[in-house]
Amino acid sequence: MNKKAKTAIQPTRSEDFPGWYQKVITAADLAENSKTRGCMIIKPYGYAIWENIQSAFDLKIKAHGVENAYFPLLIPLKFIASEAEHIDGFAKECAVVTHHKLEMDAEGKGLIPAGKLEEPYVIRPTSETVIGDAMSRWINSYRDLPMKLNQWCNVMRWEMRTRLFLRTSEFLWQEGHNAFATAEESDTDARLMADVYAKFAENVLAIPVITGEKTASERFPGAKSTYTIEAVMQDGKALQAGTSHNLGTNFAKSSGIVFQDKSGKEQFAHTTSWGISTRLIGGLIMVHSDDDGLQLPPAIAPYQVVIIPVIKDLDQADAINEYVEGIKNRLTAKSIRVQVNRKDDSMGNKIWDSIKKGVPIRVEIGVKEVESKTLTHVRRDIGRDSRASTSIDEFIDTAPAILDSIQNSLFERAKAIVSDNLADADNIDSLENMYTNDYQGLVRIPAELIDEEQYKKVARQFSLSERCLPFADNNNMVVIGRAY
């Protein structure tokens, strides 16, 4: 017996934003908590979103001469320990492997770790050290530079408080690691990758971002400078959506990445690292979704169009299915991702399934549409008010433009979220007054104010952090606020 179709996510965003966020994930069947502490299972629909992010971004970085490689999950402890400042930033989050086998305990009641390793391994929290070791062998001359490497992989950082996609002990990401001959090249590259992230967020994910430099207190451990893209969620909090680090020669010195320059003199390479992760899916949810569930930009939606056959009489099934298949094939020929929902379920549940999964366009086809050679379609970003009946040819011709319109619509709505949640304050008293009066968004203040004791007191009181020194303000201002 089918359950009655729901019409909205409960609780709503205004009632309980964190609770709403979790329910959107459940309703869209994106992920669930694992029995492995702090980890998540990404379900097929959620992983399909990550695959689309991955494939789209992979093309972007390859256009900049980056090559993919893969490095070990287990990193010798001595590699990490060689970079003191780096390990100080990650020490409390490291998962450590100390034994190489299991054996039965003395009472024969259970398995226990055995075979203690001479040197422990750290499950990678990030790969600067292990990739640096490889680069120290692969780079010998200025002719070997620049070297631009990336890997798509998982990392492990123990988390005390986890939330699906946003903060889990294990997560998926890409980590790029580039090496250059000069300081100017490395800083230019770190800024370039931050710009690549910003354009990807805006053009593919439809998420506007604030791009800038991290303050010293928020900088990546061991980095000379860190550049970031900060997105603004519907609840006014910031989400660090991607970072790019100019590491200077710090990691090259600890890893021994040395090359001979054109004059024959030995020099340390200048390196960068940069990464985005599955937390982007959390950002997509919190920027675009509504009280009916997930909304996805067409650029990364697993299915851009879902077709729902409306079969009330089995005698009509063959004609309707043939009609549906023809439309699917024509859309697919235009490189549009299409799903046909033929589940044995009610029409109401099928419609709700497409809504809660954020499919950009829903198409409904019954015997009436077959007879009139038309179809009925609905845009997810507008809802039932967009319901329209058109000829097949008209829909096939205009479908790419409709998808572009949805992509632009989500981006414009997201820009409004930023403008509604970014205010200015000239002094600390004004800043304190805003948050005392329950302001939930971000604030831009003169950068020199963060050195004042009064600011530090207010930041502690309201759990504020410096998000970035925006490039648009020539690093003279700093954006602060609460963040995920």
- Dominant shape: globular
Broad structural category:
alpha+beta
CATH topology-level name of the largest domain: BirA Bifunctional Protein, domain 2
Biggest beta-sheet profile: 11 strands, mixed
Give the helix tally. 14
In the CATH classification, which architecture of the largest domain applies?
2-Layer Sandwich
Distance between the termini: 41 Å
Helix content: 25-40%
Number of strands: 23
Question: What's the SSE blueprint?
Answer:
Layout lengths: L16 H12 L2 E3 L6 E3 L1 H19 L4 E2 L5 E3 H5 L2 H7 L4 E10 L6 E13 L4 H11 L8 E10 L13 E11 L2 H21 L5 E5 L11 E8 L5 E11 L1 H6 L2 E3 L5 E3 L1 E8 L1 H10 L16 E5 L7 H17 L4 E3 L6 H10 L4 E5 L1 H6 L1 E6 L8 E4 H29 L1 E3 L3 H9 L5 E5 L6 H10 L2 E6 L6 E5 L3
Parallel strand pairs: 3-7, 15-16, 15-17, 20-21
Antiparallel strand pairs: 1-2, 4-6, 5-6, 7-8, 8-14, 9-10, 9-22, 10-11, 11-14, 12-13, 17-18, 18-19, 21-23, 22-23
Helix pairs in contact: 13-14
What this model shows, in words?
The protein is α+β, with helices and mostly antiparallel strands. It folds into three domains: 17-288, BirA Bifunctional Protein, domain 2, CATH 3.30.930; 305-402, Anticodon-binding domain (Rossmann fold), CATH 3.40.50; 423-481. Helix content is 36%, strand content 28%. The strands form five sheets. It has an eleven-stranded mixed β-sheet, with helices on both faces. Strands 16-15-17-18-19 form a five-stranded mixed β-sheet, with helices on both faces. Strand 5 and strand 6 (111-123) form a beta hairpin. Helix 13 runs parallel beside helix 14 (453-462). 40% of the residues are buried.
